Amino acid sequence: MKLRNLFVLALILQACVKSKVENVIPPLSVLNSTPSSIRLFNFCAYDLDVKVNNNPLTSFITNSTVGGTALGLSIFPSGKWPHSQDGDPWSIPVEILDKNGRAHITLNFRSASFSSSAPAGIDTVLQDDPLNPRDYYVMDDPPYFRSYPRLNSAPSQPQNVKIRIINLGQANDPLGVSGPVTLTYADGTPVGAATSNIGMDSTSGYIEVPYGAYEFKLFNSSGSTGIDITHQLVELPLYPNYNTCNPRLQEGIFPQMRTYKPGGVYSLVITPNWFRYNDCIPGTGDYSTARINAYRTVTEATPGVNVTFAQMQAVNALGSGNVTFRVDGQALGGPLAFGQPTDNVIYVQGTHQVSLLDAGGNVLVQKSITLSPYDYYTIWAYPKTDGTPDIIFAACDMSGEIYSSVYNNGAGGVDDGTNGSARIYQVLWQWQSRFLNLCPDVPYATFTDDSTLMTNFGAGNDGDGYPQAVTNLSPGYMPPLNPYILYSETIMWGSPDTWNTTAGAPPAVIRAYQSSPGPVAEVPGTLLLSVPPLRVAQACVANPALYSPGYAPSAEPGVYTTALVGSLSGTGPAARMIVIKHNK
């Protein structure tokens, strides 16, 4: 009886014992969780260790990229919060907030290459507010947070993007790139009043522009509407024009060409940044550091997948007076003189009817084209070899990517034919051109870099670039593969210009030849003496007034088409080469 009572008591006691469950958030649940409204960017020059509500998210091992908790590694796989061009943004998961939606965050700074010691850390509390999301920028010297509200509302039109300026630059910049700034297009035209003359420590209003590929620039303002061309800010990761032995003006700096996606909201954020330069005196091995204002492009609201919009523009290379293009019965731009383009126009995906009309409104050609999202086509009107008008649709690739015959940039590895990504390279400051022969009097045209064949970026099909892009082009013919010549632009001081071609810059002069294919090919062939050589520095610099004497580039980056147009026989305008730039 006593034994039975002891057994029952043991069962009762066992039933009262609760299993101890570790309060650990599985990494998978963090990755799949809803992010809080607190988003952070590392805009300082240091890698960081992070702790939120006493949860270590990084390894907290000096200058180590290994270790860390399972929770932390799901957010920071490298074991640290790195500093990077885009600030390596992340949002605090709601799972690690406290019951009041607060995040007690501690940041420790790791040492950097330009500094023998790291600054003190940051210890503060951030509040989650889903109705009013905010971005927090980690700054240094001394360390602190800057916070700005993050816009949740989409542009007024779904094909548009919203852009604003956040000017957090330092007042005493060593290169003088401080004070009010103005946002411009690549040719120096201000984007609008809302993003002009934006003062220090302030934020502009948003401005809407159609989605597309842009090379936005930031200049110090001059007056209420002008810009100071000698004080241009760089977009990271480019370096400013800094040389203690040979001071240079802050101009002629190329931004990246970016595709701003429909429905997206973006900020150009100016902050002080540390730059390290080799000493200008050769052989010393010394270097200097400078804290200079520069900017980043931050995506505030990530747009959804574009399943709707594409773009087209049109060019008149016909030579028979003004012509007009219509798409589905609606004018694409206005009447075009010979050699003139329309602006880019946005269309929805699907099949469209394109018509070419003469000055009297008579339909000369009608064709259909099926557009997919993000397509970009240029419609060219030109005369066929029999003199009748025709139109072609030339696709434009704005990515700056090119396919190389060198696998993995020569770094080794075996190409088993299952993955071609190791042969794809991207040039962020590209001069890229398609070449077209639209002259009915030239059966085959070849374009050259002055008197030599062009050498594309990387090693092409046969080690001599992509000859099909410029060689033996018949009227209206477009190579189906690798139709571009692409150069990595020469950038000024400190540029990460790692993909230079053998020329190192676009051609200075482009010449047109009449060539011939076949078993006994003639390439480049006979120089077309009546066709003026194309001076690239003139054709590919949109606004020479943006440059002081001696600062104009050999060409501005962008996506172009170089076309041989006109007539050699006197039946139309004299043959010449024209250049159309497709991005803004």
Automatic annotation (TrEMBL):
PROSITE patterns linked: PROKAR_LIPOPROTEIN
What name does UniProt use for this protein?
Answer: DUF4397 domain-containing protein
Give the species: Dinghuibacter silviterrae
